[in-house]
């Protein structure tokens, strides 16, 4: 059925080092019906990052004026930089029928949960703190002190996992990707997502 069915919104959150970004890019590359919302940020682009694809890179003044205009569904300060999800960006994708992933931190997730009651929230966990520590160390040159700080921050973030609808453990990428897809597919079968179909069916009865 080709209808004007809106896509669902999925909040995906994890502590850093959990492999969230890799997992989400794998998922989205294989699924033309799922899109990741491109956030705005005031942080500088990393090598290889493209404006409009990875983020909209804007300055603090512009970000603050967007806050004033009410342009954000949620926004937060993470590591001294602003990050935010544009209402218009998400609405456009959802109206076109795409399921939309918001790859955001715990503060943003809380705001979206409050605003969009029917958004589905997913927390991605590492299999253990040992694996998380190894992944954080494996990133390269970080000192033990920095790794320990990150681990302690990760612990605080992981405490928020109790508030999420679903929890996916990223031990193996293929399994975790399949788990995410199962969640997204089962959400499409929930009654509110099927309302248009039921209405059309009844209209044509
Ligand atoms: P990074 O700078 O490494 O790309 O992202 C740092 C953190 O900011 C990650 O936890 C990421 O999920 C989060 N983040 C990225 N975009 C947004 C956003 O639009 N809103 C919020 N609240 N967090 C975001």
Characterization of this structure:
With about 200 residues, the chain is an alpha/beta fold. It has a domain at about 10-35 and about 100-205: P-loop containing nucleotide triphosphate hydrolases (Rossmann fold). It has eight helices and nine strands. The chain has helices at about 20-30, 60-70, 85-95, 105-115, 130-140, 145-160, 175-190, 195-205, and strands at about 10-15, 35, 40, 55, 70-80, 80-85, 100-105, 120-125, 165-170. A five-stranded parallel sheet has the order 2-7-1-8-9, sandwiched between helices. The protein has a four-stranded mixed sheet with strand order 4-3-6-5. Strand 5 and strand 6 form a beta hairpin. The chain is globular, with a radius of gyration of 18 Å. Bound molecules: guanosine-5'-monophosphate. Guanosine-5'-monophosphate binds near residues 74, 83 and 105. It catalyses: GMP + ATP = GDP + ADP. Keywords: ATP-binding, Cytoplasm, Kinase, Nucleotide-binding, Transferase. Its EC number is 2.7.4.8. Pfam families: Guanylate_kin. It is found in: Cytoplasm.
Offer a concise description of the structure.
The protein is built from eight helices and nine strands.
String of helices and strands: EHEEEHEEHEHEHHEHH
User: How are the strands ordered across the major sheet?
Assistant: 2-7-1-8-9
How far is the first residue's CA from the last residue's CA? 15 Å
Bound molecules: guanosine-5'-monophosphate
Q: Rounded to an integer, what's the Rg over CA atoms? A: 18 Å
CATH architectural arrangement of the domain at 9-37 and 99-204: 3-Layer(aba) Sandwich
Ranges where pLDDT stays below 50 over 5 or more residues in a row are none
How big a fraction of the residues is strand?
Answer: 15-25%
Using the coordinates shown, work out and report the CATH topology of the domain at 9-37 and 99-204: Rossmann fold
